[in-house]
Amino acid sequence: MTEREACRAVVAAIDRLLAEAPPCTAQDGMDAVRCGVAWRDRLVAQRRAEGASPELDRRLALANGVLGLTWSGVVPVSGFRRERLVKARAALVPEAG
């Protein structure tokens, strides 16, 4: 899976969480988190292998920001915050191409 495909997987997972019907499940949420972490881990591995670059650092910061924005404090306290998912999706769409 390429980096772009990994990013697209995150967008698709967020889309599933945002879908009106059927309502998302805890498993959908965990799948979305896994996609986000896999994309971020891919970027970390790339940075370790190739070294820092402004573009790679930007994408890594985006991945970390999306993870923090969308998943922090979700379980078990408050559930998914729709407005945060919408913001995260909007930030990812240019990367997903």
Descriptive overview:
The chain is mainly α. It has one domain. 81% of the residues lie in helices and 0% in strands. The protein is built from 5 helices and no strands. Helix 2 runs antiparallel to helix 3 and helix 3 packs antiparallel against helix 5. It is elongated. It starts with a helix and ends with a helix.
Topology:
Blueprint: H1 3-18, H2 26-50, H3 54-71, H4 74-78, H5 82-96
Helix pairs in contact: 1-2, 1-5, 2-3, 3-5
Output the keywords.
97 residues, mainly alpha
Helix content bin: over 70%
As a whole number of angstroms, the C-alpha radius of gyration is: 13 Å
Using DSSP, what is the number of strands?
0
Order of H and E elements: HHHHH
Q: DSSP strand (E) fraction?
A: under 5%
Oligomer: single chain
The largest sheet, given as strand count, sense and whether it forms a barrel, is: none
Number of domains: 1
